[in-house]
Design brief:
Layout: E1 25-29, H1 33-45, E2 49-53, H2 77-88, E3 93-97, E4 111-115, H3 120-130, E5 136-145, E6 148-154, H4 159-168
């Protein structure tokens, strides 16, 4: 019988996305529906390094639309998501922050940012950190509702683009 190494192989998609080029850290702010699923998809593409920010716990109503299982109920979302990512690929490097991201939060390394918080006010605060910050390699933000979905890609090094995005934020 053929014995397989117990290691994730990204060979099937390496012709269109080379994981070796994804050495940056993926910054996930908000580990709910969008953040947890986007992080898992990034890991499945071959990203190996993650910074996870969230203060919330996994609750039973989170299970249908988030990357968590019943075993994660009651855990901090960042810890639960770290276990989901490591279950998929034990080689991933995850830094967890059991707190909400604020203007005083420190990024130790840069990379693309997935901005998936629950409020527009928190997004405005986070924009103070990413606007013109060369550590951040683009901001991916979504807005979802029962009958609405929008994905925004923000070039955080373009002040005018960030301002246009900020002006598109509604009220909480």
């Amino acid at each position: 019988p053929v014995e397989f190494a117990k290691r994730v192989s990204f060979q099937r998609h390496s012709s269109w996305f080379n994981p070796a080029l994804a050495e940056c850290r993926v910054i996930v702010i908000g580990c709910g529906a969008v953040g947890s699923n986007a992080a898992l998809l990034a890991a499945r593409m071959g990203f190996m390094r993650f910074d996870l920010w969230d203060k919330d716990q996994v609750e039973p109503h989170n299970l249908p639309n988030q990357a968590y299982d019943v075993e994660h109920i009651g855990m901090q979302k960042v810890n639960a998501l770290a276990s989901v990512l490591k279950r998929f690929n034990p080689e991933v490097d995850v830094t967890i922050h059991e707190e909400f991201f604020t203007k005083d939060s420190t990024l130790h390394e840069g990379g693309p940012m997935i901005l998936a918080t629950d409020s527009f006010d928190s997004r405005r605060v986070i924009a103070e950190v990413f606007k013109l910050n060369p550590q951040i390699q683009g901001v991916f933000e979504t807005r979802l509702g029962f009958d609405f979905g929008q994905v925004n890609l923000v070039d955080n090094l373009d002040s005018e683009q960030v301002d246009i995005w900020l002006n598109s934020l509604g009220n909480d």
